[in-house]
Every structure is written in structure tokens, then in C-alpha cells.
Design brief:
Elements (H helix, E strand, L loop, with lengths): L2 H16 L9 E4 L2 E4 L2 H28 L16 E4 L2 E4 H6 L4 H4 L6 H9 L1 H14 L1
Antiparallel strand pairs: 1-2, 3-4
Helix pairs in contact: 1-2
This protein binds zinc ion.
């Protein structure tokens, strides 16, 4: 067997056996700040490892979010949103409440995510309520 090919196939096995744990990153060298691979197989194995590592991190973050982190609405979310009221970690919309409509922000939104705020802010119900509010105050 060709010496070089033998090296590569041996190395490939090492890489693939390592690719699903959080072990050492192998199979590449850094040349002038760029990653350099001996072969396309090594580059593919590196990508696999990278993906496996990212998936593991995402699972860890999801676990943290679910079991450790307690989400609370942030005061900073109120900046530029005079309608947003936070009472006992529950978010309300003053404009929609005044308009008499029913939505999660009039009943109290308990999903403490900025995405919830942004979705409400862009909703048609809210935009109508805001337009009415602005017409009173002008
Ligand atoms: Zn609203």
C-alpha cells in the first residue's frame, strides 16, 4: 500500500472515531491563520465534528433554558415601547387594553421573550390600537 494513502486512511479512522465526542480537534493544521487539511476526507471529518459540536452546544443551551434559566421580562424591552407594562413578570399592552380588544397582551403575556413583544408590536390588532391612541394624543 502506498505510504501516503496508508497514513490518510489511518488518520481518517482516528477522526471519525473522534467525531461525536467533545475531544481533541485533529486532522488539520493552521497555515497563516487558515485551516489547512491534508485531504477532502479530513476536511469533511472536520465539518462533521464542527456540526456535532454545535449540535451538542445547542442541546446544552436548550437544557439550560428549560431547566435552569428562569426567563423574566426585561425592563429594557420597554425602551421605545410606552405601551408595554410589566406587572409581576407578566407583560401587558396598555394600548390594546384601552382599545378593548382581546389578545395575549390584554390578558397578560407570560411568555417572557422579546420575540413575543415584537410579534405583538407588529400585529394588526396592536397597530390599530396604536393608531387610535396616537390620534387621541395629537
Ligand atoms: Zn398592543
Amino acid at each position: 500500500m502506498d505510504q501516503d494513502l496508508h497514513f490518510k486512511s489511518t488518520h481518517k479512522n482516528e477522526l471519525s472515531s473522534n467525531s461525536h465526542d467533545a475531544g481533541e480537534w485533529t486532522g488539520f493544521k493552521t497555515v497563516d491563520g487558515q485551516l489547512s487539511f491534508e485531504s477532502m476526507d479530513q476536511e469533511a471529518a472536520f465539518k462533521d465534528k464542527l456540526v456535532a459540536d454545535l449540535v451538542a452546544k445547542r442541546k446544552a443551551i436548550a437544557y439550560y433554558d428549560k431547566h435552569v434559566r428562569k426567563r423574566r421580562p426585561q425592563e429594557a424591552w420597554k425602551v421605545g415601547r410606552p405601551w408595554l407594562k410589566i406587572v409581576d413578570d407578566i407583560m401587558f399592552c396598555e394600548y390594546c387594553s384601552e382599545d378593548g380588544v382581546t389578545c395575549s397582551f390584554t390578558e397578560g403575556c407570560k411568555v417572557a421573550r422579546l420575540t413575543s413583544v415584537k410579534i405583538h408590536e407588529q400585529s394588526e390588532i396592536h397597530r390599530i390600537a396604536r393608531a387610535k391612541r396616537e390620534s387621541y394624543t395629537q
